[in-house]
Amino acid sequence: MPPQPTELCENCTVRRMDLRRCAGCGHVRYCSKECQKAHWKQHKPYCTGNIRIAREAAALGPDYRDRLKAIGKWSEAFSVAIGSASVSALDVMTHPERIDDYILVIFVNFLGTGAKPPFTHDIIGAEVVPLEDLRAVARAASQEQLELFDRDLAPRPGMIRVLLSDSRLPWSYTTPFVVPEDVSTWRRDQLWLQHLQMRVTRPRHRSRRVRLAHSSQIE
Predict the structure, then answer these.
(1) Measured between alpha carbons, how far is 189 from 160 in angstroms, rounded to an integer?
(2) Could you list the residue range(s) of the whole structural domain that residue 27 is in?
(3) Shared domain check, 96 and 49
(4) In 41-150, at which residue ranges do the beta strands (DSSP E only) sit?
(5) Residue 170 falls within a domain, yes or no?
(6) Which UniProt keywords apply (predicted)?
(7) How many domains does the chain have?
(8) Helices (H) and strands (E) in the chain, counts
């Protein structure tokens, strides 16, 4: 399968593989300065929120800061593998509407600053969670958490939301995946988690770590 465009311009939603990240928060992507400028009013609360999270991570010390930086780079390096697995986890091939109602949560373990990129994380497990269940947790935590949740995880056309959860971080890292236009022709991978774990694990460690994975998925 050829590489798929895994990103959408946040403003015009064009599919490309060479979008540029917002220089402020480093999360959202744009195809041009014009699109970034046009989207700024909508993006500003999101941008300042992500900058605040980065500052909180820095205040927690180098361990948290290094983890936050590493998980971002890791998710970008394996975006196609993570996205392909999420398509099978939600069975988007036959149920495209599930991208609006479910989120894939992938539980990861950071291997430390000595790990060589891109193999910096192990995947421990994964779970498909109803969007409303996660929203209820955010609502119970605080109004601020609910607002952050609604801003970061609001359904977007053609986009799967994936949460990367590191037990040592006080939050989860959100990474999106653009559903390929030909997804209805894909064959669902029933062993998506095991195959994903193998793809993101350093080759000489695969046979040992692949047994650690467990999953919960919708049928």
Answers:
(1) 17
(2) 1-59
(3) no
(4) 102-110, 121-130
(5) yes
(6) Metal-binding, Zinc, Zinc-finger
(7) 2
(8) 8, 9
For residue 52, CA distances in Å to 67, 135, 138, 207, 215 come to: 16, 21, 18, 40, 32
Q: Quick check: 98 and 183 in contact, CB under 8 A?
A: no
Question: Do 145 and 194 belong together in one domain?
Answer: yes
How distant is the alpha carbon of residue 107 from its chain centre? 11
Q: Which of 8, 1, 39, 45 is nearest to 25 (CA)?
A: 45
Closest CA to 164 of 87, 88, 84, 75: 75
The Cβ of residue 124 has, within 10 Å, a number of other Cβ atoms equal to 17
Determine, yes or no, domain membership for 209: yes
Instruction: Please tell me the distance from the alpha carbon of residue 158 to that of residue 179, in angstroms, as a whole number.
Output: 5
Q: Mind listing the pLDDT tens digit for each residue in 56-101? A: 767 767 777 788 788 888 998 998 899 999 999 999 999 999 999 9
Do 77 and 117 form a contact (C-beta atoms < 8 A)?
Answer: yes
User: Do 177 and 105 lie in a common domain?
Assistant: yes
Which residue, chain included where needed, has tokens 């910096």? Answer: 120
